Structures are given as structure tokens and as C-alpha cells.
Amino acid sequence: MNAETSELTELHLNEAAIYQELDLHAVIDGVDLEALQPEALLQHILSTAPNARPCFTCSFQTEDMVVLDVLRKAIPDIPVIFLETGYHFAETYAYRDQMAAAWNLNVINATAAETRVEHEAKRGLLYIVQPTDCCNLRKVAPLMASLEPYNLWFTGLRREQSPTRANLKKIEDHRTPNGHHLLKTSLLADWNWQQVTDYAHANEIPELPLYAKGYTSIGCEPCTAISTDPNNARAGRWGGKKLECGIHTFSEKSE
To answer: For burial by CB atoms within 10 Å, which of 4, 28, 92, 203 has the most?
Structure first.
């Protein structure tokens, strides 16, 4: 076998490894995953899934920073996918850059096919007239493309965040509309906000400044307001017309 053939063979093997699916049942392996704390759950997953290709979607809100702190200690170079819609608060961009530098993060900015200028020239202020379409174009589509190389997807989702997340499991088997299979893992699924902030303070994680202004759930600036519902942190999103942008509902969960 010559060097060129060897390189091609290695490339094909690497591609096969990237797209190899993870078996949820093998990861469970008789263990009560819901009872495991974040660090223990992460270690269990990594030890039972040696072919894992992990990534983390991050909005740089506090729960995401807690998950990221846990992940980076075990997987220092984990890809951190940030959905760069072009509409985030200036404070979010500054905080992203601050923490990327401080923690030496492997940030991947997932962008839409069109720039914000191109998008608005063609569609106007779509976030006002058709916010779901705007989210699909600038969040869901870029995320779906960004997830392709991975088979283990970490999130900062928690059951307490919204009624739409009340039945969230720590590990779920998901398949995207284009057929890509991956395990979706929410290490903090059962944590409340007090647990999140306690961890952040104990580990001296700086806070995104927008919280100090009263925001409890932070996304794109035009579609984020301060929630007036003390029982629903996400009630200030999209003018109260919806609670999800679609990035956590576009994939099909296997029961």
C-alpha cells in the first residue's frame, strides 16, 4: 500500500468514525442516568461511548456557562457552537468574546446562508412579521448543518425553564429531518435556577451583564424583552407569542 492509498484509507476510516451512531441503550447500560449529577453523567457517557463526537450549543447564558465549565474540564477542545444570527445584543457578543479568550474556547459561529443585510434586503424585518420563519433561517438551518459532524450534542436545557421543557430527559435519542442521528444530552435538566447560580458563584463564572438589567432569558435583541411572568423566564421572548425558536424542536425524539 503506497502513502497516498494509506492516507485515503485513513480518511475514509475517520469519516466512518465521525458518522458512527451512538447507541442510547449502551449508554444507559442499566444505570439511572436521571440520578447522576452533571460531572458523573458526563464521565459515564464518555466512558461508555468511546466513539463519541461531542459538541455543545451555547447561548452564553448562565446555565450554558455552567455546562460549559463542566465540559471544558473533561473535553478542553469541545466545539462550542454559537448561533450567530446577526441580531444578538452587543453585550452578548462582548461576553462571548471575553469568555472565549478567558477559557480558550473552541467557538464555532454558525451563520445563516445570508448576511443580516442580505436577509433584510430580501425579506424586510422578518422577525416582526414572521418570527418563526426568521428563526428557521437564522437559527435552525445553521444549527442543523453545524451538528452534522457530531453524534453527541450537549445543551443547557432545564425542565424549569419553560412549560415546553417540563418533560425533558437528561439524555434523548434524536434524529434530524435530514436523517442525522445523535444523542442530545442536557446535564442540568433537573437543576433549578438557584442550583445554577450557586454553581456559577462557587466557580467564579462571570455573568452576562444583561441579567443585571432584568432579563431572565436572552436571545436575539429584537425578540427579547424582560419577562413579566415570575413563573416563566422565557415569557419575554418573541413578544410572548411563542416560547421556542425551533432549535430544540426541529429534531424528532425517539421514545
So the answer is: 92
Q: Where are the strands (E) in the chain, listed by range?
A: 54-57, 79-84, 106-111, 152-155, 171-175, 181-186, 252-254
Under a CB-based contact definition with an 8 Å cutoff, are residues 173 and 26 in contact?
no
Q: Is 135 a catalytic residue?
A: no
User: Distance between CA 33 and CA 19 in Å, rounded?
Assistant: 24
Contact by Cβ (8 Å): 69, 203: yes
The CATH code of the domain that includes 174 is: 3.40.50.620
CA distance 44 to 206: 28
**3-state secondary structure at position 192:** coil
Per 3-state DSSP, the chain is made up of helix, strand and coil in percentages (nearest 5) of 45, 15, 40
How far, in Å, CA of 49 to CA of 209, rounded?
37
User: Strands across the sheet with 152-155, in order?
Assistant: 106-111, 79-84, 54-57, 152-155, 181-186, 171-175, 252-254
The three grid cell numbers given for residue 82, joined into one nine-digit string: 454559537
What cell numbers appear for 40 in the block? 458523573
- Residue 224 DSSP SS3: strand
- Catalytic residue, chosen from 58, 135, 220, 245, is 245
User: What confidence tens digit (pLDDT) does each residue in 121-158 have?
Assistant: 999 998 888 888 988 899 999 998 999 999 999 999 99
Mean pLDDT over 58-74 rounds to 97
Identify whether the C-beta of residue 236 lies closer than 8 Å to the C-beta of residue 215.
yes
Least confident of 25-34, 106-115, 120-129: 25-34
In the chain, how many domains are there?
A: 1
What range defines the domain where residue 224 resides? 3-254
Asked if residue 140 lies in contact with residue 247, where contact means CB atoms within 8 angstroms, the answer is: yes
Q: Are strands 252-254 and 152-155 parallel, antiparallel or unpaired?
A: unpaired
Say which DSSP state 89 is in: -
